[in-house]
Amino acid sequence: MGKGIKRVVSFLTTDESRQIELELPFTILMFALMTSSGITLYEGWKKLCSINLLPRTQQEAKEIVRRVEVLAYDPLTVMYRKAEETKSKAYREFLVGYVSAVKSGGNVLTFLKNKLSSILVLRSAAAKQSVETLATIVEVYTVMLVVTLCCYILFVVMFSTGVLNTMGVTASIQVSPVTYFLFLFLTSLMSVVLMMIAHLIRRSNLVALKEPYVIAVFPLIGTLVFFVMAMFLPQLQFIVESLGVSVLALICLLIISIPPIFSYQQIAKTNFAAEDAMPSFLRDVTEARKTGLSPETCIIQASKRRAYGSFSEVLGLIRNQIEWGVPLRKIFRNIGKRIKSWPVLVNFFILIESIEVGGGSTTALEILTEYSETSRNIEKTKRNMLKPYILLSFIWSILLAFTMTTLTIIMNSLSQMSIVGVTQKIVTAMEPTTGLLAAGVVFQCWLSGFFMGKVSDGTFAAGFKYSAMLAITAYLSLLVSQNLLGNMFNLIPA
Question: Which of 9, 31, 65, 108 has the most CB atoms in a 10 Å sphere around its CB?
Fold first, then answer.
């Protein structure tokens, strides 16, 4: 675990160069495309100034063009100086290598291909390392959930048995619902901190994803107001008394989660299908182009396949628009309204660029296809490696529920003992917070679903699904553990 924490610290300190390294493979693809089409180096940088999908590269391109046009430096000199200024090792090596290839009169296209291959190897290793880092964060999260609950239980027992009296702290600390809410707040705060760390490590492929969050706003406000009113207004106390705090909390959390689940699932279904199908689609286009068909005809022929799942619907719209004579640029803008996956959008953009700039040369298409296939394999491997940690989230939800039930058993067992001055104190101390603690377990498991959504899918929006499942798991585990352990030890009513 110590090595994993070092990885986290190292990762957070190098975040500035991550964006340009994320875009670098596509930058190299663009240069390879333009080189194979006979476009000069400077014209290539000028073209990159207009590509909004690569914002960090666009910024670099604008700076290089500015220095060339305003300061009258030649592009190679500017690139070499930018290599000295950048913090990204991969970007520095690319710039220096490109300058060396041009000055030495070498084959620039060969250099770009080799550089792209080496970056893919590094990305594969980086993906494995990021999985190990995320695994460390998940382990820390698991330990944090269980340990904090045990610490709260220990505090209650020590207070009730008079241990804290000898420490002189009972005057300022009391076991009450206020203490419980403080415990829940601190636990939630630690969860949010770990979520933010996971957010920095695991980036989502989906851009401008707002719909699930917007849909969740009104149910969140409504259920929060209703829950507070039910807890504190005497007129609504019958709801809490009839359902119980944990059931009421579960219902409110499910009301918040269910609408965004349907919204996200609809978006994810199309975009994940697009990510899976894009390499195959590009391969079909490339192979059709090798037969001498026009690029547009190749796209039409490739889009007729029915093996692309939900992505086939998008490809059908693309085919129809091409047949109607809609310009490729406008088709790309229309795609952006339905597809939110950044890799898919960039691949489509480069495909269109290869057609409009270089006439869809087979060399450029082959480079794009090979990169897309390799990149997709890396991403699939990464997701497969992260899947076991989803199971771990259900395990800790069950563990928290059983820990909570064990606490109830301990309290009931102590109430049957004849220990003067201790029994009544423990029962009295725990009675106001036992129901709240059960609801807190359900809430904490619901909150941890967002953590797992970020780890598994790269976006908190996926967490609504896991949150609902984990909250239900926690509540059912509370019921099962109460019946199981209650009947086993005959200490609590089944």
Answer: 31
